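Thread: "does anyone have the structure for this chain?"

Original post by V.I.:
We have the sequence but no experimental structure in hand. Need at least a predicted one for the grant figures.
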Amino acid sequence: MGAKKVKISSVKRAAHLKSKKTPLSKQQQQKQKQKRDQLKSKREQGQNIFSQKARKRDNLAQRKKHNKLASLGLDPLEEDNEDGDDELLDNVADMLDGDDLALLQANKRKRKAKATGEEDPDQGQSIGLERAYASDTKKEQDAQKIKLDLLPIKSRDGQIITRTTEVDYIPKPKQKKKNEEEEEEDDSEEDGDTEYEDSDDDVVNDVEAASAAPVQKLISTTDLLIARQQEIERQKYRIGIICSGLLEKPEDKMRNFHALYELMDEINPASRQANLMAVRKLAIISVTEIFKDILPEYRVGQVDTKMQTLRKATLDRVTFENALLQQFKKFLQKLEQITAQVNRRGGLRTPQTVKLATVAVQCMCDLLVAHPYFNYVQNIAQLLVYMLNCNYAVMRTAVNQCFRTVFSNDKRLEMTLFIVRRINHLIKTKQNNVHVECITCLMGLKIKNVNLDAEKENELKQKKLESHRQRLLSLSKKERKRRKKLTEVNRELEETRAEENKQAKHQKLTEIIKMVFTIYFRVLKNDPTSCVLSAILEGLAEFAHVINLDFFSDLIDVLNRILEDQDELGYRERLHCVQTIFVILSGQGEVLNIDPIRFYQHFYRNMLAVQAGKNHDDFAIILRTLDEVLVKRRRNMSQQRLMAFMKRLLTGSLHLLHNGTLATLGTIKQTFQLTSVLDNLLDTDTTIGSGRYDPELDDPEYCNAASTALYELALLARHYHPTVRRMAVHIAHGVPASGEGALPTEIGKLTSHELFTQFDSTQMAFNPTIPLPKAGQPKLKRGKHLYIRSDFKKEYGKLLQQGKVSQTKDKQAVQIDFFSALQ
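Reply from O.Q.:
Generated one for you, tokens below.
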């Protein structure tokens, strides 16, 4: 059958199109709802008028009947309840049969039993079953638990461990929002879409704490500690839920940051109660970890969404980035408020605030290391520079380590240059009265090949290019075209090699090292007795290879004055001064006409200051200086001075740890390989040299080291470390390359610095590994008695034979007259 065509009138079509119009706004829906409520109230009022009139008529008839029964002496209520019902049931029973009639009679008996006070057994049994079912359902709901996923943790081995926990199941009523759309003509109602709440809203809003009313009663200290631990565990669970939601979908959960910020404050604005210190620390650390995960690696730009038309995806990304930037700014402001309490004058400096400020500083250090190029990171760096000079060593150490990490990982050098500038400004403002960490953090700078004379070289290069340009102008037209094409090709090649980027990076590195030397020279010139002089000298020794040639002579004069005038200068500062001077003289300073004999004496005098104690790590300074003195400047040294340094170096190796002794022997081995002058020290004939060796003389030139030998090698050949024994035998045999006394390849190729590092036992690890003893029973050997007098054994035997045996109760004893034997 075909479809039947139906004609639709224009009125119905208009009504149909009217219903298909665009959905109403919220204001229009509210107006329609008010109109519907007014119509409904009017209808109810009209119905109430008619019902009241009908009720009056019924009440009048009932009162007449009750008055008639009362005049006859009967109870009107019983008559109505019993007779009326019985008559009605009898009339209905005449029309029923079978099961319907039986059910009707049973209901009648139940009503009579209820009226007389008797209990129906069937009804009592049904009520008991209903109560049992309700109690069982309640028990099942109380025992029901659900599993929740907690934040994963990372083990020391790098393995990700997932965690879950079981919590009580609490059924939450789902709030249903109804969208009723009714038309005035039909009064029809339509249910809209159902919307449910977010599952984390009750945890974020802390509904449990809001519902718990404080109870004022006398409690003990134990109750307080238990309540504190319970509150910490509850807040831990709450922080974990909030953080997991933020990491899962940060675009939709930005509002959850406010709940964490409330936990960071001293007084919670929502509950108006004090936050526990442990909870505040957990909140700060949790927010830091969230930002470390969700912050982008690039710098977020400001985009005006009102003035520009953007795509939907771009608009969502820009909105999220702006919201993230606002939350990050608010978090940094709170951290600044926490650190201001211990860093500014008039702050509340209590042990609790100091601990909280330490956590805040560590969190800022983590953010600076994780995202050094994000917005507001320069504000973090500026604040940390001021915390580098605070009065708390823990904070200074954390910031020092943070800056060293940033210096080593910074590829663009923008953040490095900014931090060095701020440190320079701080030292200049404080007039060199700063802590040592402000100087030692600069040791983390990766400065290798920086030419501070590049400006002069560029001027010379420009002059050459100008002369070359003049020659090009005199060329013919064809040659100029050819030169032009060749220049364009060369420019394209430089662009592909990123030469411009290298030049910009090199320029930043040059500016950094200029700023560093400005700090060092200001302290040396204005305050040579400053408490940071040791760190200044250490930095100069580290970066002496990049110092400008114009400063060499003045710097050497200043260091010589410090060595000679300041008697309270420690051995470490003296070693740094000598190291700086010899680094300068070994490089570009060879052109200077300076006699370093006084610096040899200072170095020779302080070589024995390091021992196998607390200052054993300072032996690395001596090793670096020995490389400059004995290896690079060996040709500028006399034979007497070289032998004196070898003798004193080997003497000092006797009271060092095994790694220091190995580094000493490695330096001696290298020097023996480079020169043949030292072979005389292996000869025990004392008639070779002139005079007598004086080990206490401070001048290596006149101590007559050629008249002695390296007797210490015999002691080191019986050292407890096997590698030291092998190295000592190798040097005693004259450093052979093969044959008897030769070293294995894996040991012979190591330098003195590598020997000092690889055989270090500070981590309780012995290199090489000590073998386990062989399992077996020890063999007991009977020893022989040794007597000083040869005839003592015979006399002792005679004395035992002459002894008298006396009997006691249980034992026999031998009585010996020692007094008569001695006479």
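V.I.: this helps a lot. Strands lie at 145-154, 160-168, 804-807, 812-815.
O.Q.: and Residues 547-759 form one domain.
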